[in-house]
């Protein structure tokens, strides 16, 4: 019985250490990510209220518009399908928002089929390939960037990253960091299963 208890203690300690290391890596990546001049900018989708981007998505779009104006990419790929409670696709809402901010509509490319980060980047990669775009700046919330970087690597996207932190929603942002730990574990498990089977 003592051996089982000690084993469970060790298992628990290892689990806590793993979570802390993962969380540190997520925070560090988000804080240190720097964009590089690229062929395009990919904005990962987020909630839309009817037809209006949520604050999280609006911040991502403002960052993308800034990067675009500073010459970090000639095109902006807006990626996101239509989810529950959304009157239009996230991609369409994003395109409308960017045009309202002065981005040339010709340079905004919609990808409106994705429902997950994996699909966001897989479908964006297809667009990049079709248009001979070799490099991208991926824009999302800082907590999301580490996992996005792992998926982008899996999708063979040569990318740099730029993250936002929505100061008005600090609690949501902190929750986002915590949610990313199991999300990254899930990604690795899916990757292992894919390789095995």
Automatic annotation (TrEMBL):
InterPro entries for the chain: Cell_Envelope_Assoc, DUF218, Rossmann-like_a/b/a_fold
Ranges annotated as spanning the membrane: 7-30
Pfam families linked: DUF218
CDD domains hit by this protein: YdcF-like
Domain DUF218, residue spans: 39-157
GO biological process, one term: peptidoglycan metabolic process
GO cellular component, one term: plasma membrane
Domain of life the protein comes from: Bacteria
Keywords attached to this entry: Membrane, Transmembrane, Transmembrane helix
Keyword Cell inner membrane: no
Name the UniProt record assigns to this protein: YdcF family protein
Species of origin: Clostridium aciditolerans
